[in-house]
């Protein structure tokens, strides 16, 4: 299916079926990364609640353990996944997947 759009006196043609195929490829990848981001945020929230309980009960060892072993890594993981989701939304399926492969598998 082809569509013509009149913009400022110029006609633009594009293939709608091609866009539909790209969006079908994009949805599973974007959904999985969005779900992973939600899971990481939930884990971070639970760790912060545990850290608050450790601080409230004056347990500096537990607080330090959570900060050094879990919280920093959790924030880095959230940043990495959020960056990928943002790039995928901005760049679309073709270029977004290419950037993901390039950043994660070309080392």
Protein architecture, described:
It is a single chain. The protein has one domain (25-105): Ferritin. The chain has a two-stranded antiparallel ribbon. The model has no long low-confidence stretch (mean pLDDT 79). It is elongated, with a radius of gyration of 21 Å. It is mainly alpha-helical and 107 residues long. It is 81% helix and 11% strand. The protein has helices at residues 16-56, 60-105, and strands at residues 2-7, 10-15. It is built from two helices and two strands.
List the helices and strands and how they pair.
Layout: E1 2-7, E2 10-15, H1 16-56, H2 60-105
Antiparallel strand pairs: 1-2
Number of strands: 2
Order of helices and strands: EEHH
Number of helices: 2
CATH topology: Ferritin
Pfam families: Ferritin
Enzyme class: oxidoreductase
EC number: 1.16.3.1
GO molecular function: ferric iron binding; ferrous iron binding; ferroxidase activity
């Amino acid at each position: 299916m082809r569509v013509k759009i009149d913009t400022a006196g110029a006609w633009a043609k594009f293939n709608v079926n091609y866009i539909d195929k790209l969006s079908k490829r994009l949805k599973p990848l974007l959904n999985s990364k969005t779900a992973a981001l939600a899971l990481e945020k939930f884990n971070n929230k639970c760790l912060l609640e545990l850290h608050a309980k450790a601080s409230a009960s004056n347990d500096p060892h537990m607080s330090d353990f959570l900060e050094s072993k879990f919280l920093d890594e959790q924030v880095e993981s959230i940043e990495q996944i959020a960056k990928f989701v943002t790039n995928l939304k901005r760049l679309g399926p073709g270029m977004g997947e290419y950037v993901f492969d390039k950043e994660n598998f070309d080392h």
